[in-house]
Amino acid sequence: MIEIDGRNLALPDIVAVADGASVSLAAGALARMAASQESAVATSMRRPVYGRSTGVGANRTVELSKGDGTDTHGLQLLRSHAVDAGRPLERRTVRAMLAVRLSQLAAGASGINPAIAVALVELINSDVVPEVREFGGIGTADLQALSGTALTMLGEREPLGGGRARNFVEGWATADALPFISSSALTIAQAVLAHEELSQLLDNAASVAGLSFIAMSGNVEAFSPAVAAAADTPAVAAAANDFHGLVEGSGQPARIQDPYCLRTLPQIFGSQIEELNALGTLLRRLVTAGNENPLVHGSLSEGSNDVAHHGLFQMTNLARRVDSLQLAIGAACATHLRRIDLLCDPNYTGLHPFLARDGAGQSGVMMLEYVAAAAVGRIRANAQPASLQTVVLSLGAEEDASFASVAAAQLQSTVQALATVTAVELVCAARALRLQGRRPEEFASHRLRSMMTAGYGLPADAADRDLRGDVEQATRMVLLEH
User: Fold this and answer.
1) What are 133's strand-pairing partners?
2) Distance CA 356, CA 362 (A)
3) What range does the record give for the signal peptide (predicted)?
4) Which residue, 52, 102, 186, 384, is the most exposed by fewest CB within 10 angstroms?
């Protein structure tokens, strides 16, 4: 059970909800939302409030007055904004979105009726998952995804996978429509899931690179304390220390100076971890940020209640952070491919070409290099900055967009492609070490022994054969904690 209090929500807890954990709302969160609702109602009685007493988008100048459908305007807004297209997203992605949205509402700045949040808890715990499709958001709030969620809560739309629609709420007041959908919860959730998977994957990828380093008798001088002390960033220094601990005592170096794919491992992984940490810091803020538009603030009891119409929903920083991480990952791909290439080279391993069983012209792991290159092509395409895009919509009322939604979806795609590249390197490195007669117990590093043991769990047969199963097994390995 994950308690949502609107103040703190760990990213692994969002992953837990995505994977099926139940949620509860803290009493303090309910009280905060009730006070925010009272403040919003009072404010809307003395001044225009976007989405409560006016239309939205280019209709922001249209005043909603009693008798012209004000009582049903919220429901109409949800229905009109619920359109999306493309393939349905996975259940765990949508459940992560629901957890993020609940946490944001619990922050108490939306003015929404707390009963909506209570119904959202029931939706999550009943494992009724709205069907959300891939095209809709542009980085200025996931209006379509959350409107569709509201229709699912109302029983108007079948959940993902079909089945019986059911009511979690009775009706939807106009005052609660925009506050519910004014969020980039889907985009944030996608970034959270990708961030958490990358945290484990990059750690494992570093261990796999360590195995390649040993298989090619790399020179540990490149990771010495002196090098770490001279590093240009703390992340690179930490990576140098990590690699030194991984491979120290692994054998005599074959070269005075290694190729870049081995010698610059601290820069390669340090830069990725630096960008990953920066994204994580931003995400931890966003998952508890009550920044709906308009923002309800102040205190009704103190007479300072008001709203602020703003643009915090434009996920500019999120798009930029994801883009920066994508660039770091994309830039590292050349060295991933080069290590795989050199593992196939007898000059670096002392083995037969392509790690074949013998020198009779067998292809060995030759085609794995092609698989890795195809995955790298996807990563590099995803690394094209999404934050450079823009668009003008709603009769010119909204003349820019961050496209953080595109960036987050691309990052999820990158995770899967990078897992494939890392898996290919693991298959090659493990085979090389096995053919060299190296054993996991030779090495002091627990991380290295664990990854090497995992690699040795792959099929030992070095004869030419179908390697699809090896890659699939290795892919599962590099996504797990070791």
Assistant:
1) 88
2) 6
3) none
4) 384
